[in-house]
Amino acid sequence: MNFFRRISLARSNRKIHRDIVASVRHTLAEDDDILTDEQKERLSGFAKAADEAVADPDQEKRAENLRLVVENYNAAYSGRNSFRTWIASVLDVLAVAFGVAFGVRGLFLQPFQIPTSSMQPTLFGIHYIDRQASDPYRSRTVKFFTPLGASNAKIVSPTDYGILESEPIPVVRPWGALISSLFHPGDFYRTGTVVRFGGRDFLLPGDDPRESIYRYLPVDPRTKTYSEGETVFDGWVSSGDHLFVDRFSIHFKPLKRGEVFVFNTEGLYSSRGTPLTGYYYIKRLAGLPGDTLRIDDGHLYIRPKNANTFLPAETFNPAFAKVYSGLGGYQGHLPMGRLEEHVEFTIPDDCCFALGDNTANSLDSRDWGPLPVKNIIGRAVFVFWPISRRVGGVDRLDPLPVPTVYPPSSTQPTAMNLQ
Fold this sequence. Notes:
- The chain has helices at 3-30, 37-54, 59-76, 83-107, 140-149, 175-180, 209-212, 319-323, 365-368, and strands spanning 109-113, 127-130, 150-156, 169-172, 191-197, 200-205, 231-238, 242-246, 260-264, 280-287, 292-296, 299-303, 311-312, 345-346, 351-355, 371-372, 376-385, 392-393.
- The protein has 419 residues and is an alpha+beta fold.
- It folds into 3 domains: 3-81; 127-238, no CATH class; 242-385, Umud Fragment, subunit A, CATH 2.10.109.
- Strands 1, 8, 9, 10, 15, 16, 17 and 18 form an 8-stranded antiparallel sheet that branches. The protein has a 4-stranded antiparallel sheet with strand order 13-12-11-14, with no helix packed on it. Strands 2-7-3 form a 3-stranded antiparallel sheet.
- The radius of gyration is 33 Å and the shape is elongated.
- The chain starts with a helix and ends in a 26-residue tail after the last strand.
């Protein structure tokens, strides 16, 4: 055997020996809890046999003995180095990683989607954005990203005397239509609604344009006749705000009056005696255990436990001030239910009181009563989607400088379709 072949064979033998010993050690460590003592002893025997084989001074015999050890080892553990086993190992690691991630999520931060319009204009559920009217209030960045978080919604009357001729018909768009709209992000939506207007069918995003579009228009399109070429509406249907809820800090930093928070609806019933729909709600904390509340002229007043005087809500937290600004869609607190005009309500111990900012369109403690403290999930901290002026810390923005007005035929005040 020439010199170079001996050098090459020696290097190959050393590598084979290292691989066998490393594989045995890895298997013993990874499967320690599932291997029997007999299997562990047999595995250790392969490592010992490799040690004995590599000790042979004859490189040719050393190579042959190592080859036999490898064959026997692979025959006994043929699946250990297979692609399927590698995939299984990777999946095990990912399972642990996801377990840790979801554990962190469960303990600290939880994503949450705004389900309704009850917290508008602080936080928005699915809603309509008017393309032209909102233009001055959306930055270039927001305009650029709008199609990723909202879907086009437009109807132009195809004829004179155009009217809505039928109720909306929900549809599920075929995958082919979705694939063809990949290059038009604002048209990429799975569920839609067909409406017939002026003898022509129009496909709109979302399940019900009556809730997501019509109620945000100055004039309800069901009450008007349009001329040929007249725009009925032109804008976007937003997917609603997605935010993170801090589940951890409330255990050492209790919620304060005026903070926005998320809770579950277990054990809560509406004034009609029916369980609340939806498991999670988001509202503003209006009162703490023992507080007495009342609403006078659309303004919330609070008398803390053991206090003698009612004070305006903004005395306890300036965040309340924008609710009474009369700007940007804010309209104050509507007296109703447990807080009818000039009626006082004292919150029981171990309970709090929740109000929506859009109180004319909010089902809250005025209807279903005080909220048990045990139902609280956490404080709303950060809006992460879609890209809008609200991205960032919750409740940090001032109202848009637009007066709040209720159009005669709309259930949402003006300015709700501007952001």
